[in-house]
Design goal:
The chain has helices at residues 2-6, 28-39, 59-64, 84-91, 98-107, 114-123, 153-173, 182-201, 250-255, 267-281, 289-297, and strands at residues 8-14, 21-25, 47-50, 70-74, 227-228, 243-244, 260-263, 302-305. It is an alpha+beta fold.
Length: 346
Amino acid sequence: MCALESTKSVKLRSFGETNKYGVAAKDLKELLKKGCKLLKKPMNCARVCTYDDGTELTEEYFKTLPRNVELVLLSGDEAWNGFMDEIAGLLSKDRTSSQLLEAARYFRSDDRSAKRRKLLADSLVGLEDHSEMESREDDQEWFEGLLPRFKTKSAYMKSNCERRIRGYMTELEVAKISSQSPRVKEEFAKTARGITDLLKADRYNGRYFDRSEVEEKNRLCTAQGWFTCQGAFDQDLCKSLHSINPYGNKESRINFGTWNLDHRIEKKRTVIPALVDAVQNHQSSAINLTYFYRLLFTTDNLRLVHFVCHKKVPHLLQCDSKKMYKRATKTPKPKTPGKGKRPRIK
């Protein structure tokens, strides 16, 4: 009887699929094992997140899940933002049109559906604005579908940003090392840990989406919650002047999930490979961890862009080789014994 009580039943689906399967597990490890076998996913780098808002599960978090909660199994580079179910809720309301319904059907499957996506975005214009409200108690509709632990809008938006940034950390940790040398692999592991320690010290830079952040330079929005598209990687600004306030209403919060934090110097094509090459030729102690940290996780290299401004083409921008390594410091030469004036003997 006790064993049955400790087992938790959940509904699990694979990334990009709609079919759900009932799975019972006593902990996260067992859930991953059963889920990967059932959905035919590799165990290596497999993760599970909540369907509603994309929060990645830990062993502790698994224990708090309600029965029959919907989860998504991810592997490799797959990421889940958890907003499509809410878009479906939006489409069920009377104010949506048949065109908007068609747009949503293609939203997930067609990367070229910019016109359809624009229909969805345009439909959100003119909706009620409750951006002055902050707590769950004051604007309950804004929090629909979100976990109870989020009591304020700023807390959720901060967590949303942290989740995106943590995804980049995962890619760094699973980077492939071409060298078979145990020394190189160990040096890269040390380097990756050092960079992720810097990220943890900065609390995953969740402040970028947090309008309650006191220092204006540390956030990407105004104190009221307005975000402005910073333009494509090869432009100085957004020519279309895209802007959004996800704090204003539930639909805008959902739509903000389609905006991207884009690496100007590309993460996968350039930054991580450059780091791997650097470690293969130098000890981890010689690598400039701060430089790579800023390229991977900060607005030194990240740009917030509307999906229309997110160009999915090679950026052809390179890392600065002069900044990849720590500067060697010159140590003063010790004086040679025996040289210099001898003291007089009286």
